[in-house]
Design goal:
The chain has about 190 residues and is mostly beta strands. It contains no helices and 18 strands. The strands form 7 sheets. The chain has a 4-stranded mixed β-sheet with strand order 6-11-10-8, with no helix packed on it.
Length: about 190
């Protein structure tokens, strides 16, 4: 419809549209419909194995709109995607007159960090230091510490993520060895 010129015929009834005595023809009229536009969710970052919700909103043209997306079989104004690698998505919004507009967004997939460390033996009153091995540079850690056998003090949980190494001074005033287990949770800023 948009941008085309039309003559409009007005009549007293539908039956008299063709009767020149009961109808009039307007001057040439140009119909202007705003072009279709679409906005989409800004780029997102997710952890590997999770999903993201993408939303497109059409405007202009003649509603309602239909939406199709690249890189997913899902359709509609809001779709859920679960990419395994970083992926771009282009949405096409189409109005009832088949006019369309496109917009693009992306989902960056961040790998889940892992960490491992070897057991350490420490003398009572001496600090130990363990730097976990990780798959992502810049990984930080939180941990919980628990006495699993014997008697010892000086261990504590780390609730705010810090860069390694894990270092504490354990005290054992007995003649029996004590074991303190640390459960480490890696964090890479996203996951």
């Amino acid at each position: 419809l948009s941008g085309k010129q039309y003559r409009i015929r007005l009549a007293t009834t539908a039956a008299t549209v063709g009767d020149p005595l009961c109808s009039v023809i307007s001057q040439i009229t140009k119909v202007i419909v705003p072009p279709v536009a679409v906005t989409v969710t800004p780029p997102l970052t997710i952890c590997f194995g999770t999903s993201a919700s993408l939303t497109a909103v059409g405007s202009g043209g003649t509603a309602p709109y239909s939406y199709t997306w690249t890189n997913t079989a899902a359709t509609g104004g809001t779709v859920s995607v679960s990419p395994t690698t970083s992926t771009s998505y282009t949405v096409t919004a189409r109005d009832v007159d088949n006019c369309s507009a496109t917009a693009t967004t992306s989902v960056t997939v961040t790998p889940i960090p892992t960490a491992s460390a070897s057991a350490q033996v420490a003398c009572s009153g001496s600090a130990f230091s363990v730097a976990p091995n990780t798959n992502i540079v810049g990984t930080t850690y939180t941990w919980t510490a628990a006495l699993t056998s014997g008697t010892a003090s000086g261990f504590s949980n780390q609730v705010t993520a810090v860069s390694g190494p894990i270092s504490q001074t354990l005290i054992n005033n007995t003649t029996t060895s004590a074991v303190v287990s640390y459960t480490v949770t890696p964090y890479n800023g996203v996951c």
